[in-house]
Amino acid sequence: LKSQGVGARLVRKEDDRLLRGRGEFVADIRVAGMQDVAFLRSPVAHARIRGTAIPPHLREVAFTAADLVGVKSIRAVSGLPGFKVSEQPVLAIGKVRYVGELVAMCLGPTRADAEDVAAAIVLDVEELPAVHDMLEARKPAAALVHEHWEDNVFLETFVDINSARMAEAPIKVTREIRTARQCMAPIEGRGVVATWETRLEQLTIYSACQMPHIIRTGLAECLGLDHGQVRVIAPDVGGGFGYKGILLAEEVALGWLAMRCGHPVRWIEDRREHLTAGANCREHHYRITGYADHDGRLVGIDCEATVDSGAYSSYPFSACLEAAQVASILPGTYDFPAYRCRTFSAATNKCPILPYRGVARTGVCFALELILDAIAREVGIEPHELRMRNLVRAEQMPFENITKKHFDSGDYPQSLRRAVAVIGVDAVRARQQRGESDGRLIGVGLALYCEQAAHGTSVYAGWGIPMVPGYEQATARLTPDGGLELRVGVHSHGQGLETTLAQVAHEILGIDVAKIKLVHGDTALTPYSTGTWGSRCMVMAGGAVAAACKEIAQRAARIGARLLQTDAAEVVVRDGYAVAANGSISLAEISSTWYLRPQDLPSDVDPGGLEATVGYKPERDSGTFSYATHAAIVAVDSEIGDVEILDYVIVEDGGRLVNPMIVEGQIYGGLAQGIGTALYEEMPYDRSGQPLASTLADYLLPGPLEVPAPRLDHMETPSPYTQFGVKGIGEGGAIAPPATIANAVNDALRPLGAELLCSPITPRRILEAIAAAGGRRRS
Amino acid sequence: VKPVAFDYQRPGDMASAMVLGRRDDAVVKFIAGGQSLGPMLNLRLVQPDLLVDLTALAELKQVEQTDDALVVGACVTHADIEDGRIPDITRGALPAVARGIAYRAVRNRGTIGGSLAHADPAADWTACLAALGASVLIRAASGRREVPVEAFMVGVFETALAPGEIVEAVKIPKLSGSARWGFYKVCRKAGEFAHAIGAVLHDPERSVCRAVIGATERRPIVFGDAGAVLGGKKGADLAGSLDEALVRRTLHSAGVTDPIRQQVHVVALRRAAAQAVA
C-alpha cells in the first residue's frame, strides 16, 4: 500500500466512470417537470434598447429585465484605487453592451421550443458606435461603454522602480506585441439546472462551475435570499480553465425563474453561445522596451500594457485582475534593476474578461520572452545565453524580485540548461546551416516562466475583490467500516483530486485509496472554500486534507491506546493501524468501537470522534512558485505559412509531485491549449463589434494531430512553506507555449528578416511578415 | 442551437422521393449523410418544412463499372471510398482524397453526392472530380441528364439542380495505366476545410491533362487542357514550368485578388503538379 501515497503514479480513481461515459454532468441531470430555457441575446455590440416586443401569446414564457423585480445586478468591485464600477444587469436594462448579452429569457418544453419563443420576440434597438478595440477604446473620441464614466478604463495602474537607470543602457529594443482574444472552449460548456425545493425552502442550483461556495454567495446576494436558502451543486464538470470560475447572469436568471415558475428549469450552453458570447480571454497589447548592456545583461523593462476587459466586471475576479497582474508578474524569472509598467483595463463592447488558465501569465510570458529574443539578436548572442545571464539563481532563493514577489525555491538556470541540452540547440544550429531538403526553414525557440500558485489572504486582500481566500478547510471522517470520507470545498473537474487527495490521506493514515471517498462540489456537504482556481487545490486542499487526517490519527491513537491498554503517547498511526510496542489495532476496529461500541471507549476520548474539520494555510501565503523552461523546434513552410512543431521539450519544477502521472496529464493539456493560443485560436471582431468565428469551423482548436507528444523532464525542488513541499502546477503548461513557438518561428524566419509579434501565428500573418520583410529589403 | 420544427420522410423508391421533392406548397430539402446540412439545420440557416431522407434509396448506393468509367451512386460514403469498398479506377486518387476529408466520423456518414449537391467551394470532391473529368448524373422527372462536375457547381452553395432534381450518381472516367495525378490541399489543421486546393491529372495515353484550382470562393477553376498552364511541356518538366503569371491572372479574373491568397493557390497547384510527375 505504500505505493499509493505521495509520489505514486496511481491510476485515477475517477477515470472508471469518466472514460466509460458514465460521468454525470449538468446536462445529464433529469428532474421531473423540468423545462428548457433559451436566451434571446443581443445581436449587436452596442445599442440602446427601444423595445422588446413579446407576442401576447408568449407573455407567460418570455421574461425581460422588467419581470425580474428585486433581482440585483452583478457587481464585482475591486478595492484598488481608481477602479470604476460596472453594473452587469442579469437581463439587459436600457442598453446592450456586447453581442450575446442576455436580453430575454424564454421557456419551453424543449430547447427547440424555447428557441422558437426567442425567435418570435422582436428586439428594437438604436445602434451606437461600438468600442471594438482596446486601443481605440482609450482614445478621447471613443464612444463610452458606460456613459456615466469619463473614459473607457476600468483601472489604470503604474509602477516605477529606478526607471531613470534605463537611460544609461546602450541596447534598447522596442516592440509592439499583441495576443488575440480567445474562447476557453472546455469540452463541456456551462450549464444550469435550477429547482426550488419547497420542503427545504431552498433554491438548488446545479451548475457546471469551479467554485460552488462563491457562486452561492453571489446568487444569494443577487436574488436577495439567505445564504442558507441556496444550495449549489457542481456535479461532474468537463473542464473549467477559469471559464467556470465566475457567477453567471444565467445562474441568477434561472434561479429567479425556478422560484417564479415553481418547476425546475435548465439552460445548457451551446457551442455557438460559447463562441459568440463567451470569447472572453487573453486579449492583451504591449508596447514594451527592453534595456540591456552589451553583454546582454538586462538593465530594465519599460512597458505599457492594455488588456481588453470587455463590458463588465465579472464576479468575483473583477475586470482589473488581469491587467493589474501584468504589472506585478512581467519581470518573470529574471533579476534586473529597473522597471516601469503602466497598465490599462480597457472597457470595450465585448463580453467580460475572465481569467483563463495561466491568467495574465500567458500574455506576459509572450511579451517578455519575445523581447528577450529580440535583445539577444541585437546583442548577438544565443537567446539561452542571454537568459542565463539574467535568471534569478538558485543560491538567491528564496528571492524577492523587483515587484516584491517572493520566489519560494527552485533552480531556474538548471531548468534552462537541461532544456537547451535536451532540445539540442547546437544540433539545430548545424541543421540550419545545412538547410532542409524540402525547403522548409527550421527554428528553435525557448521560454521560461514562473507561476505563483495558491497565493492566499495577504495577496488577495490587496486586490480588494469580492473574494479573499483564507484558511482552506477539509473534513476527514472515518466510517464505521474503517473507510475514509474526505469533504472539501474545492472542485475537481479534470484535476484528478479524487485520486490525489486520497493519496494525501493515504500518506497520513495508510488507508487503501480504494476505501477513500472524496465528497466535493456541493455547498450542503462541504466546508466553505473559494474553490478551484489559481493552481491552488493541491497546496491548499491537499494541506487541509493532511491536517484533518493528522487530527484523525491523533484521536484514533487515543482510542487505540485504550484498546491496546497502553499510553496514547506510545501509539503511532501508520499503514491503517494504530501501532504500539505491545501490538497494533486496525483503524477499522477503532472506528467500529467509536460508532458501534462506545462503551469500550476511554473516558478522555475526544468527543469530536473520528470526524474532524481542520483549516490549513502554508507557512507563508504569498504563493508557491513552480516554473519551467519550454523549448521547441519548428519547421516553417515559407511559401504557405504552415508551422509544424517537430519537437517540444518541457523541463518543469512543480515541487514535490503527489502523482507525477497526473502532473504530466496537466502539462499535456496545458500544452495543447498553449499551442491553440500560439497557432490557431482567435476570435476576430469587426468594427461593429461582431464576433466573426461563430462555429468551430472558423474558431480553430488544435486536435490530436496538431499537438505533438512533448518530452518532459521533472525537477522536484520542494517548497519550503507547504505540506510535503508541493507547489501548484495546474496552469503552467498553458503559459509558455505561445512564447516558445513564436520564438522558434522567428528563429526560423531570421534569414528572411521577418518577425512575428502577434498570436496566433497564422499562415497569413507569416506570409504577411515575410512579404513585409521582403519589401523592407527591396526598399 | 436546435432546428425549427419540420416534417421528415424517408421514401423507399426514387419516384416517391421525386414527388416529395416537387412539392410547391413547402420548402423541401433532401438529406443524405447530413454532415453539412445537419449543422445548417441546427443553426437555423436552413428552415425546411420537409426533410426528405434519401438513404433508403437502394439505387443511390449502387456502383457500376464499365470499360471506361465508374458510376458511383450518390449515397456512397466517403468511408466506402476510403476503405476500398468500391473499385478504384483512378490509380488511388479517390481513396487518397477521401482519406483527407474532414474526420472519420464525418466520412462514415457523409456522401459523395451530398457533398457535390451541397456545393461548398472548399470541399475536396468538387476539385478532385473536376480534375478527373467526372460528371454528375442528375435524375429529373423528365429523365436523366449529365453535367460536368465543374459546371454542376454554379456558385457558393448553388448547383445546376432544378427543384425536385436529385443527384443520382457520379460518373468518373477510368484512368489509363500510365496516368499520374496530384492533389494538394492547404489547411491549417487536419479535418479543416481547405484554404486552397491544387489538383492535376496527367494521362497522356488518353491525351488528357487537366489542372484545377479549388477552394476559391466560387466554382473550381478548371484548366481542361492544362498544357499551357503547365508550361506546354509533358512528362517530367510538368511541375517545374508552371506558368505562375498565367495562374495569377486567372485567379485575379476569378475574383481572387489578394496577393497572399493568390500565392497559396499557386503553390498548391505547383505542388499538385509536382506530385503528378514524382
Task: Walk me through this protein's architecture.
- The complex is a heterodimer of chains A (779) and B (278).
- With 779 residues, chain A is an alpha+beta fold.
- Helices cover 28% and strands 24% of the residues of chain A.
- Chain A has 18 helices and 29 strands.
- A seven-stranded mixed sheet of chain A has the order 3-5-1-12-9-10-11. Chain A has a six-stranded mixed sheet with strand order 7-15-14-13-8-29.
- In chain A, strand 16 (399-400) and strand 17 (406-407) form a beta hairpin.
- In chain A, helix 8 runs parallel beside helix 17, helix 13 (497-509) packs parallel to helix 14 and helix 16 (660-680) packs across helix 17 (737-749).
- Chain A starts with 14 loop residues before the first helix and ends with a helix.
- In chain A, 58% of the residues are buried.
- Chain B is α+β, with helices and mostly antiparallel strands and 278 residues long.
- Chain B is 29% helix and 25% strand.
- Chain B has ten helices and 14 strands.
- Chain B has helices at residues 14-21, 37-42, 78-82, 93-99, 104-109, 112-118, 124-132, 149-152, 244-253, 259-277, and strands at 7-9, 28-31, 50-53, 63-65, 69-73, 135-140, 143-148, 153-155, 158-159, 166-173, 180-186, 196-203, 208-214, 221-223.
- A five-stranded antiparallel sheet of chain B has the order 4-5-10-6-7. A four-stranded antiparallel sheet of chain B has the order 11-12-13-14.
- In chain B, helix 9 packs across helix 10.
- The mean pLDDT of chain B is 94.
- Classes of the chains: A alpha+beta (779), B alpha+beta (278).
- Chains A and B meet through helix 2 and helix 18 of A and helix 10 of B.
